[in-house]
Amino acid sequence: MKIKTARLYRQSQPFADGPYICRGQTEDGFDSCIVALEAEDGTIGWGEAAPLGAFYAEAFPEAMRAGIERLLPVTIGLSATAPDRLADALNHAMLGQPAVKSAIDMAAWDLAARVMDSPLSDLLGGADGDSVPLYRSIGQADPDAMAQKAQDYVRRGYRRLQVKVGADPLEDVERLKAVRAAVPNDVPLYADANGGWLLEDGLRFVDRTRDIDYWLEQPCMAYADNRTIAQRCAKPMVLDEGLVTLADLLRAHQDGVISGATLKIARIGGIGPTRLMRDIAVSLGLKVTIEDTGGSTINTAATAHMMLSTPKAHRAHTVDFMNWVTVQNATGMPATAEGMLFGPSGPGLGITVDPDLFLQ
Ligand SMILES: [Mg+2]
223 CA to middle of ligand 1, Å? Predict the structure, then answer.
């Protein structure tokens, strides 16, 4: 069976908890790209990718839409059940640009799984259990405000928190201290700088937080700087923005920099390439977080299938973007509860996408 039509939709997705501040930049929501690939029998596969504005990743919504429009014709006539071959065709037609390819790749995997009448997680190795721990991210603000938000998230059932740092390192120390003091000791904290520090900022931060229990995530953008910090810091380190290709992952592991990997589907280029890095990270003994740069229900369902098909012992946590925003684009995702994300049932992503929810 072949793909007969390919369409791109757009959905504006305001944040439910107000503006999100990261690396000093403020965003009010996601500007999401939704791709539909339809097979000859009418089965439709769905994919979603949304960059966080233009500052966060090497992608921005206007360019993502232009790139997707350019690539969609490439998918027409390809097999509806061969997502890796579809990825080959995208890579042949366009060099690089993984974020542009992500929603198309996701739709190809959903379509293949739906045509095979199989949950997507089965195509990715099979689900290990039915739920995944969630984290919530606390954007940069005054330490007291961040501590209050942390307590609010813990009250709402989240048991893992990410504290956004990456600004003035001494103020960041106060942010981490305030949040650590505000939540129970068994709530893991990830101090995530999103690559916002220079080397000296990161070194000062880790020197002043030796007595606090936390994980350190992507302190600097430059790999050499993160390696230097890892050599001087006893905290477990996770890289996120610095992991784009498999070569990045292998180098960081070989150098002893990371104990965990955060893989964002759009940054890596979709379900297929993320699955490859995930499986190798697992085989290297790393903890894995699979999430994305943004989206709503479709994206959250894809994240759930990727995480559920990651062995439990190697899972860190993930995000529930459908709860970060005020709009949905599908039905059938189980509600989150007690800080856990549950996988949907049914073929493909297991959700029913409703274009009425984004065709306004
Ligand atoms: Mg991160």
Answer: 15
